[in-house]
Amino acid sequence: MTAQPSEYHRRVAAQKRTSIIEAATRLFLDSGYDGTSLARIAEAAGVSRATLFKQFPTKAALFEAIVTEYWKVDEEEAPLPEPGNLRAGLETIGRRYVALLTQPGMAALFRIVIAEVPRFPELGETQFKLGKMPYFESVRRYLAAENAAGTARLDDAEMAATQFLGMISTYVFWPRMLLARWEPADSAIANAVDQAVLTMLARYGAPGSHGA
Predict the structure, then answer these.
(1) Where along the sequence lies the DNA-binding region (predicted)?
(2) How far is residue 137's CA from residue 154's CA, in Å, rounded to a whole number?
């Protein structure tokens, strides 16, 4: 019978995993994906090589973990809004998307992919399939549910999700890729979300279903 790890050991393992992911992100950004070895990551994270290889046997597996970690949304703690109030639902999703895009390290993750994808196209595929798409699909499902509830009128929930998230990221996130000091005020970010919501309501909201 195999003994189950204690709460202490699970906590230590989680802390080491976080240290490894943070160190790998820094090194990938500083030295490039190809120029960073797992041994160097282990040293920077303050863990043994055996510990790192046990959690991440390859560099590709480590990068997949980084992408998954940054795009992770706990749907038990932050479930999708219930359909029935399109305005409130979009406001909630918009605020959560801002929090996701502006978390420490997200811009660095995109810079790594953009810099390395010509030589390592699999990094772009990982970012798209394990990061962007699962999140995007959750927003598409929400809009489809509003359509089924009669509070939205749309023929293409995928396009509607693309439009909504694009309006927000174009202001909140993408300038960061070129402007090192792009830090709009909280009020400006909130206004960007509000304007995106109003645009969606004008385009897709069913009459009388916009909410307060």
Answers:
(1) 37-56
(2) 16
